[in-house]
TrEMBL record:
This is Tyrosine recombinase XerD. The keyword Cell membrane does not apply. One of its GO terms (molecular function) is DNA binding. Keywords: DNA recombination. It comes from the Bacteria.
Length: 171
């Protein structure tokens, strides 16, 4: 994680801990847990370590118990906000959350990061999946030039006339 994000993340976690404490004071059961976990760890739903860092601002009623819980954000919440931001910015390209992942990997490659390190950061099991990002050309990268491209080749005409001159002097 970039160092400059650590303090912001710590503030976010602290704000979630405060929200959790308020929920507990208000008698909210806190997070919903699957049946097996709630039986195995009956007090876990009240423990902060089980709470969602990106919790819904609304409370929901558990249909099994009737207790109020704070659930995670809806699946498409980020996409909805991203779509609005893209529209507001006037971008014409199709942008999804995966676009950020793709850009992250591409910029790491352009910066010279080892492909295996990128594989690990992206959570790919097979490096071939990560190698998909290598097809994107770095606009700042110099084109690789063959040493043969630097040779001064004589035209076929000049090579032929040289051969003819050589033959004329040997007769």
């Amino acid at each position: 994680m970039p160092d400059h994000l650590v303090s912001s993340l710590k503030r976010w976690v602290a704000s979630r801990a405060t929200l959790h404490a308020c929920d507990l004071d208000d008698g909210v059961a806190s997070v919903w847990l699957p049946y097996a976990l709630s039986k195995k760890y009956p007090a876990a739903h009240r423990d902060f370590s089980w709470q969602f860092l990106f919790a819904s601002p609304r409370l929901a009623k558990d249909p099994r118990t009737g207790m109020l819980h704070r659930h995670h954000l809806a699946f498409d919440t980020f996409q909805v906000h991203l779509r609005r931001a893209v529209t507001a910015a006037g971008l014409l390209k199709h942008v999804t959350s995966h676009t950020f992942r793709h850009c992250f990997a591409t910029h790491l490659l352009w910066a010279g990061t080892d492909i295996r390190s990128i594989q690990q950061l992206l959570g790919h099991n097979d490096v071939r999946t990560t190698e998909i990002y290598t097809h994107v050309r770095n606009p700042n990268e110099k084109r690789v030039e063959s040493p043969l491209d630097r040779l001064q080749f004589r035209s076929a005409e000049s090579a032929l006339s040289r051969r003819q001159r050589h033959l004329a002097t040997t007769d």
